[in-house]
Amino acid sequence: MSHEISDNAAESRYEIRLDGRLAGFAEYRLRDDTVAFTHTEIDPEFGGRGLGSALARGALDDVRSRSLRAVPHCSFIKGYIDRHPEYAELVAAG
C-alpha cells in the first residue's frame, strides 16, 4: 500500500491518502511565514500503520521547503518534533 501526502490549502490542512483513500489530516493556520498546526487526526481504520508519523514528516518537510516556521499547537506534531530533533529548527521562537 502506498501513501501520498498533499497540502489541501483550500481546507487548510495536510492530508494523507492510502491507496487514494483519505486516511488522515493535519489542520493548520497559515499566517505570514508561520504554519500553526492545530489538530492532527488519523482515521481509526488506518491506525497503527505509522501514517501519523508519515503525515507529520511530510507536512514538516513541506514547511521547511517553503522556508516557513512551524508553531506546533497540536500535541501530535509537537510530540513528533520532540522525538525528531532534526525538525526543531523549524519551530518559531516564542
From TrEMBL:
All copies of domain N-acetyltransferase, residue ranges: 1-94, 6-92
PANTHER family assigned: BSR4717 PROTEIN (PTHR31435:SF10), PROTEIN NATD1 (PTHR31435)
Protein's organism: Thermomonospora umbrina
Protein name (record): Uncharacterized protein
InterPro entries with a match to the protein in the record: Acyl_CoA_acyltransferase, Gcn5-rel_NAT, GNAT_dom, GNAT_YJDJ
Matches recorded under Pfam families: Acetyltransf_CG (PF14542)
Gene3D superfamilies the UniProt entry points to: 3.40.630.30
Lineage of producing organism: Bacteria, Bacillati, Actinomycetota, Actinomycetes, Streptosporangiales
GO molecular function: acyltransferase activity, transferring groups other than amino-acyl groups
